[in-house]
Model the fold of this input.
Amino acid sequence: MHKFLILGAGPAGLAFANRLLQNGQRDFLVLEAEHEAGGLCRSQLVDGSPLDIGGGHILDVRRPEVVKFLFAFMPRDEWNHFTRDSRIHLNGQYISHPFEANIWQLGSQQQVEYLSSIAKAGCVTGKPKPEKFTDWILWKLGEKIAHDYMLPYNTKMFGDELDSLGTYWLEKLPDVSFEDTLRSCLEHKAYAKQPGHAEFYYPVEHGYGELWLRMAEALDGRVIYNQRVKSLCFDSHIVRTEDGAEYHGEIIISTIPYREFAELYGMPEELRQSINSLKHTSVEVKYSPESLDTPAQWIYYPDLSLRYHRIFLRHNVLPNSKGIWYETNADRAEPDSKNFAYMNKYAYPLNTIDKPRIMNALLDWMKTRNVYGLGRWGEHQHYNSDLTVELGIRLADELA
Done:
């Protein structure tokens, strides 16, 4: 019997557990399905340099207390600081991200066409904000940006689920007004509010996964690996794993996808059934040894004839490395025996229209049983690692 039983040694579980230690609480145990810690932020040595198997994960600078917390495990002098340079490849041209703030980089005729389209967008003409994501794209950006970039790109990312997405999560996207776009064209300078990652840290010598390995080491043997959870009983607080082991926690912190539970005993049937409505995407990360002559760290590809939707250029963040990581929705991926590839079964939680209702009911009920959902999968939210760490710290301070 432990005071805290933590399911998952990704950023959420590791932040929570290490904060417990900082608060003087040592009666806890972490269960991890894989052979090492890190979750989606794990790294693997590929072609002589680290590759982040979950995609291009980075440490955002915008939460100073989170950065300070993480630098205690991996000091500042082991990180490089970057200003984000991400671009969009469209019809043979590269334009800086966000698209609507940088159309000034295109020819004058194209600028006129995009500006004319944006001027007719619903958000400019005063139409009500729609509830569906696809409708919002047209409402916010106008038909030309929607059809040239946003709709095909998001179709590649989310596949057949695009029409099921809501709009409540769009604070993650850049907020660029028509006036901002017009001003950028006049002054040849981007005007936009970046929601995050405008500046970031990335390790000097390691992949991003090194940070989480060190955080796991700091737990002094309180992580048990290769323990894939099978069931959770909300009445007895017993967790069973696939190999038959049982663990008991007074308080349970779950950071793993709900679909991973074969059984959830003691949960009302209505809540159990609602979990089946939660959706996610799977993404393949594939390595290729070539390099591109560009300073960009990310490039986005809306072209539907290309299977991948985004690339991360390793040689522009990690000194003395080479190569590119291609990110492709699992439904669009194809076998490749030549290059390293890793399939992330759980990559992005999908922000479907009914998800807030499902998750609010689920999380509220779980708390009455001293079980807490935490992080990207425990809360089924598209959280970046810095926010996930902040939430883990906050919950540990609340409960410890």
Remarks:
- The first strand starts at residue 2 and ends at 7.
